[in-house]
Amino acid sequence: MLLGSHVGMSGKEMMLGSVKEALSYGADTFMLYTGAPQNTKRKEIAELNIPAAHALMEEHGMKKFIVHAPYIINLANTVNAETYDLAVMFLKKEIERTAAMGSDTLVLHPGAHVGAGEDAGIASIVKGLNEVLTSDCKVHIALETMAGKGSEIGNRFEQLARIYDGVKWNDKLRICMDTCHLNDAGFDVKNDFEGVLKQFERYFPLNQIACIHLNDSKNDQGAAKDRHENIGYGTIGFDALCGVTRIAEFADTPIILETPYREIGGSADKLAPYKLEIAMLRDGKFDPKIFD
Known about the structure:
Elements: E1 2-6, H1 15-24, E2 29-32, H2 50-59, E3 66-68, H3 81-101, E4 105-108, H4 118-132, E5 140-144, H5 157-166, E6 173-178, H6 179-185, H7 193-200, E7 209-214, E8 216-217, E9 228-229, H8 238-245, E10 254-257, H9 274-283
Parallel strand pairs: 1-2, 1-10, 2-3, 3-4, 4-5, 5-6, 6-7, 7-10
Antiparallel strand pairs: 8-9
Helix pairs in contact: 1-2, 3-4, 4-5
């Protein structure tokens, strides 16, 4: 299995620091944002310290990592033309940054129609992707499965399939499957993840899943709220999530934790839980006192 987590990228070390953080968690993959996910402030590619990061990855046999596009990109917005134009412009740049950093996967939230309706939102997403994807694009855009909060698009596989159907270069598309989002969208991840995959296969082959966000959920199935929980502490539970990591078809698929920071060992501050969670998943046994 390829287990990792979201890591930061900042300071002088930039991407090198991201790799160091991932290694400190015992990870063999990772996911990062090219900058703060809430804004468009980005450093130049030459400042990202990419060669040093690649050298450290090679030293430790780390071959795959994922880039996540910022939340501000909303291709589904037909209500505000400036929001859509910003999304297209910035997504083009994120594709360039992702390729320069050496990843072939850029995770993207499909977007929210903000009241215009599902059909209008999907048509706008298709339009935007057709503006940014080309036949020689080296990066796959992985559309993330969403919880269905507000006017989010992507909480049903049929919606994602409609996007694929409308995009000219849809061989450049992939899927990022988020377990918390699936649960909150109404899929039975806890008791029947095999059934969830069968539903997925009505629209896509499993090889379209480029990465998995492995998160427990604070919410009941179908709540449409999108609130992540630590592995084994939510409504999905450890056994189901551990089982996802053991599926043979996902042996080479990056599995990324985005679980909440929390107090660990009586710490006053909230700390990253990833080292402990990754070790627990590899061991295959739930430890209810892991954070004590």
